[in-house]
Amino acid sequence: MLVLVAPGQGAQTPGFLTPWLELPGVEDRLREWSDAIDLDLVHYGTKADADEIRDTAVAQPLLVAASLVSSRQLFATAEDFTARVGATAGHSVGELAAAALAGTLSEAAAMSLVRKRGLAMAEAAAVTETGMAALLGGDEAAILPHLEKLGLTPANMNGAGQIVAAGTAEQIAALVDDKPEGTRRVVPLKVAGAFHTHHMAPAVSTLESATAELSVADPHTRYVSNKDGQLVTSGQDLVKRLVGQVANPVRWDLCMETFKELGVTGLIEVSPGGTLVGLAKRALPGVQTLALKTPDDLDAARTLIAEVTSAAEAGADTAAPAE
Fold first, then answer.
1. Which among 48, 103, 163, 281 is least buried, having the fewest CB atoms inside 10 angstroms?
2. Do 217 and 280 belong together in one domain?
3. How far apart, in whole angstroms, are the C-alpha atoms of residue 102 and residue 190?
4. Would you say 120 and 208 are in contact if contact means Cβ atoms under 8 Å apart?
5. Which position among 67, 92, 225, 271 bears the catalytic label?
6. Are residues 256 and 119 both part of a single domain?
7. In a domain, 89, yes or no
8. Exactly one of 196, 199, 225, 271 is catalytic; which is it?
9. Can you give the pTM of this predicted structure?
10. Dihedral sign, CA of 221, 225, 226, 230?
11. Quick check: 3 and 90 in contact, CB under 8 A?
12. Angle at the Cα of 41 (from 21 to 127), degrees rounded to 5?
């Protein structure tokens, strides 16, 4: 079974959209979205520097746009996506891309919502200087009390030996100087706020208003939620989860547990891929993985999709009862 995942904030790098603009129709689509949300995605994805795209209000729409245009190169229609993808999920803001891929939101609605999300979270982040840092290695039983002692929140439970802490700049600095016993490294992230914590509470009401008039459909593909790793079958419930998610922890560890329970054999992370594939390699041994970083990876991705689909079909034929 194939799982398609979309990355979250921090995955962006300067110029990462440049090679994608060489593909037919991509630049036109990006400019159409740019006009609709009043943000020049082409400029920010090709010419902006690291500080410019670190801005939450820029990074979030940029990432969702990249996930959508790259996945469209693999699945031309919703029917094709449903036929080949067993489940989809996104990490943090990547959930909006996954919601569009699963058919709950239109691409235009996802882009409009992520623009509002980015602006609301940037505004909330401006109240106090905050940030996030990844803890690599160590035991959860030792890490969580240590974070609590420093006043930090475990904002991302990523699994595979990685927890992301969030809090004020002073609290992050204290963590860097005083890491939990057993933790190999503490790595400050390229984000501009303490996302998925109480610091983002003001953004929740903004998103509640923004989603009130959305046209929402039930997902046509199994959707795995960051909230608790559960499958979500109701479009209204999915959108409600998207709203609350900005101020609550990301449970990517539970998402990967669900992938395992569903029988995942292949996982593709759409552009700008890499982070989630790294986690999957450690947490899901034996699963074929591919990070879709540039169009040069498309042929390998199509091969993986074909292999996983063929294996699933062969398994279904073998399991079918005799006439």
1. 281
2. yes
3. 28
4. no
5. 92
6. yes
7. yes
8. 196
9. 0.92
10. negative
11. no
12. 150
